[in-house]
Write a structure and sequence with these properties.
Arc Repressor Mutant, subunit A, two-stranded antiparallel sheet, 66% helix
Amino acid sequence: MHLGDFIKVYLYILFLSKYGKDIKINDLAKKLGLAFPVIQEALKYWEELGVITKKGTGFVINNLQEIELRKLYKPNVSLSVEDIERNEKNETRARLVETINNSYFQGIMSPSWYADIDLWFKKYCFDEQVMLALFNYCYKRSALHRNYVQVVAEAWAKSNIKTFSDLENYFIKQENIQKIEKSIQKKLGISRPLTEYEKAYIQKWNIDFEYSLDVIDIALKKTTSKTNLSFDYLDKIITDWHTKELKTSDDVQNYLAEFKAQTKRNKELAKTVKYSNFEQRTYENLDNLYANNQN
């Protein structure tokens, strides 16, 4: 095999095709200075790969993108209800892929992207709107390369995004988390960016525990007497509330009021007890955790 010569033949017939000129064996042999059998071998090689098609006395260059698209979304000729629905879905996805091609690749998307998109549909079960949003998201960040798209797709899948409604809710949550992050930074006087570790705590409080800023703000007020504040300390307070199934700021305030009242009653009781080793009862020994509960 003369692969180097085969490539020369392909590049030249691509040039001829671009300018609408006929592709003929005799012309190729003369222009490229290659033996007639080598030209024949090259044309046969590219024809078998589906790159060119024999037409009359010459050859035409095939649209590789269209070929790949048809491979991925080839309609099934069966007339069953399931197959008809599958065909309609394939047609919808084919149009979606072409939209991605024209919108973000100027109509020259490489064939490998077709396979990637098909894989992501199967792996993540995204609907067509989510897939389009995925490419739009990466394109706007000037990061339209496979690795970045893959990372974003993985993140969305981990957040259980499948439909466009899921994606909208995800963005709303992310926007809300960003607002909470900025508020916490401001209230705690943190001028540096939050670490990933700290952001993970905030996401835990807001998404996993479903606590809004007004609940988190109560915990922040408990830090006014702390000189070396850590997010671990905040997390212990907020996790304790979640463990006690306190859901709203009113629930938390009522709990703290009762805790304060109970602590006061315990102190008054302790004064009447003459035993020096009396152990004051507390709510799960959380006095240290709520050291600032008098504020």
